Amino acid sequence: MLELDGLVKAFGGFHAVDGCSLRVNKGEILGLIGPNGAGKTTLFNLIAGALQPTSGTIRFLGEDVTHLPTDALFHKGLVRTFQIPHEFHRLTALENLMMVPPRQPGESLFANWLAWGKVRRAEEEVHRKAEDTLAFLELGHVAHERAGNLSGGQKKLLELGRTMMTDAQLVLLDEPAAGVNRTLLRKLEEKILILNRERGYTFILIEHDMEMIEKLCDPVVCMAEGKVLIQGDFHTVRSDTRVLEAYLGE
Ligand code: ADP
């Protein structure tokens, strides 16, 4: 589904990503770990089109997407979750989902508005999809609550919901466990697994919570100093001496 080949990102003379080659197969939940400064976030930014690589290539679904910007990748089904923007905190959870632009241009409310009579039906469809998404995430009871009043975990679930509104194929999750309480963490894990196993989503997630990595991810990739150190199942990666050394040197 995704192939990175010799990816490099230099900031001045410093290579934050230094020759990364990686393959993500459809249906995987790939866990990206590594000490602070390893280059994980920079790699995410390259994959999502937020940064342009200095060299190397990125292929998504067989197509060279190396120089495509974020919105073009979004339309192809490669989506990165972002924190709910501050201006959206005043909108309700339901409205936050309804604000997500559709992935297929033909479905856009504006295009349908131009086609006049379709607008109401399109709005109703988006509304229903947003309600279904909230129900799936067990957030139905806070549908009309302002997003700014939700707990850290509920916000993470809502961020996941925003990607579901786009019918994404590959979702990049940046530290989904950060700031989430234990109960909602279990729920978040459960929802990610259902999206993966039953709805065909492929995920790459950066995470420091090793319990979550162990539960969800296969394969696990450990990065250090801009390079892929090792790729394998959780236990192989965790017990590799190079991985231990990389974390000790943090
Ligand atoms: P990680 O997410 O694994 O902690 P990052 O990708 O954030 O690592 O950072 C990798 C390295 O690249 C760090 O040393 C960081 O200081 C450096 N870096 C990241 N972004 C920039 C930038 N815009 N300019 C200069 N250096 C950067």
TrEMBL record:
Record-linked SMART domains: AAA
Any one Gene Ontology molecular-function term assigned to this protein's record: ATP hydrolysis activity
PROSITE patterns named in the record: ABC_TRANSPORTER_1 (PS00211), ABC_TRANSPORTER_2 (PS50893)
Stored CDD domains: ABC_Mj1267_LivG_branched
Alphabetized InterPro entries for the sequence: AAA+_ATPase (IPR003593), ABC_AA/LPS_Transport (IPR051120), ABC_transporter-like_ATP-bd (IPR003439), ABC_transporter-like_CS (IPR017871), P-loop_NTPase (IPR027417)
Superkingdom as given in the UniProt entry: Bacteria
Record key words, sorted: ATP-binding, Cell membrane, Membrane, Nucleotide-binding, Transport
Pfam families reported in the protein's UniProt record: ABC_tran
Any one Gene Ontology cellular component term annotated for this protein: plasma membrane
Domain ABC transporter per the UniProt entry, residue ranges: 2-250
Name the UniProt record assigns to this protein: ABC transporter ATP-binding protein
Organism expressing this protein natively: Pseudothauera nasutitermitis
